[in-house]
Amino acid sequence: MNVRRSAAVLAAVAVIGAATPAAADPSPSPSQALPSALYGGTDPKYDGVWRQSLALLAQDTVGVKPAAKSVQWLTRQQCENGSFAAYRPDPTAACDAKTMLDTNATSAAVQALTALGGHDDVTGKAVGWLKSVQNEDGGWGYSPGGASDTNSTSVVIGALAAAGEKPDRVEKDGKSPYDALLKLALPCGGDGDGAFAFQPDKKGELAANADATAAGVLGSLGKGMVVEPGKKSDTTCEKATTPEQAAANGAGYLTAALTKDGGHLMSALAGAEPQPDYGNTADAVVALAAQGDTAQAEKSVRWLEKNSAVWAAQSGPAAYAQLIFAAHATGTNPRDFGGADLVKQLGATGPAPQTAGETKAADEKDDSGSGLFGVWWFVGVCLVAGIGIGFLFSGRKKKQQP
């Protein structure tokens, strides 16, 4: 959500031996054509479903009805077994063993389609698949069978909750997602002081990660990407024996980190120059608002209003969605966000939304889509040297630092 699941994806890169991630999001060559129903104009190979889901969910959050063809594009990305990959250029081709299934993309799609309504068949299959790939510790990794991480486990919890499931009752070998998160929570005291780690390192040790902490707070609270301000609670760090205490501890860590750097988080990406991390700051705002720490959340959203415009314009639809989620969580007007209309800016990255005057018949006509995909899908998208697997374009890009 800071397009934050990229921590999981970058970890997956290391596992499969991918190259060091590039600093910028690749754009398709002039010879490539992107689906007209897709939000964003950059190569969707690693984040197509993710950014589409966030865009649709953000529009729904502010009362905008997305274009029917954009919703249909998302539903057609689903594999027969219920899962979603990051992006399928040709959804008419069956998913096979080479299709890289993605718990994060699947969970984001569930949250978006559940909010939009009318897609119970799609979301039901997706939730069934997520349950089928739950790890023995109760959590999830980015890819099925991958080691559980805080980010992936938390976004799955959000999907389960959105779909009407009770996450604490979704168990594997007697372990729930909350058991997995508690194992990834750092003790009070020291540098970690109640934060969440992304994953244990090779020695089994945990290191504080602000990106994972923002995700872990939401996951521990059983929340998805869209939240309302919670009731103020004590964030004094105490031994976390419950998800609620782990969330409180994580919120305390985020508040301290935000205060230290003037209201925003700093990037911790290996090899990068220190710089503000706008996406993770937006995620932290949502997490703190959900926890009830509205004072710090509002301070940080004011910082985002003043400083995030260039980042959002460069990063695209998922970034605009993150800012909309942060605005919503703090009661800030997303149509006057530091003088910018986030809703309009997000809308400009994709098809025009439906209007109040559109009829059901018109919707069905847009949805029919005969031959819709045959001329849109580009073929032979090459892996750009140095691009890591991850939602780098939307902000989720922190691999755990030692």
TrEMBL record:
It comes from the Bacteria. GO terms for molecular function: catalytic activity. The keyword Ribosomal protein does not apply. Keywords: Membrane, Repeat, Signal, Transmembrane, Transmembrane helix. Residues 1-24 form the signal peptide. This is Prenyltransferase alpha-alpha toroid domain-containing protein. The keyword NAD does not apply. InterPro entries: Prenyltrans (IPR001330), Terpenoid_cyclase/PrenylTrfase (IPR008930). The chain crosses the membrane at residues 375-393. The lineage of its organism: Bacteria, Bacillati, Actinomycetota, Actinomycetes, Kitasatosporales. Residues 53-166 form the Prenyltransferase alpha-alpha toroid domain. Pfam families: Prenyltrans. Residues 348-367 are annotated as: Disordered.
